[in-house]
Design a protein that fits this description.
The chain contains five helices and no strands. With about 100 residues, it is an all-alpha fold. It is globular and about 45 Å long.
């Protein structure tokens, strides 16, 4: 990994995503996703600089992720800026988990 990019997630989370996608995506795909997760308006050129690859490479990968439905860039309201209570919730489960295992927590 180069000095311009640091994963904004833990190694455990990264390993979860690697396992979840079963080799369909590589680390560059994940890096693009993580950068966009932090700033959905980041340009392909800026991502390319941070990842030390060409803008064409980033654009091609981003479009692949979007066309396959793996990545969707959306707008959200930042509720804390409106002094409203909110909670960010991420639910993860193994693809092989049964409905019973998921519902029992």
């Amino acid at each position: 990994m180069n000095e311009r990019f640091r994963y904004p997630i833990s190694n455990d989370e990264l390993n979860f995503w690697r396992k979840a996608f079963g080799g369909v995506l590589d680390d560059l795909d994940f890096k693009i996703y993580f950068l966009l997760r932090e700033n959905g308006r980041m340009s392909d050129t800026e991502m390319a600089k941070r990842l030390n690859v060409s803008a064409t490479t980033v654009r091609r990968r981003r479009l692949f992720l979007q066309e396959r439905g793996y990545l969707q860039i959306i707008g959200i309201l930042i509720l804390q800026e409106l002094n409203l209570a909110y909670a960010d919730v991420l639910v993860k489960f193994e693809k092989t988990a049964s409905e019973k295992e998921i519902l029992s927590g």
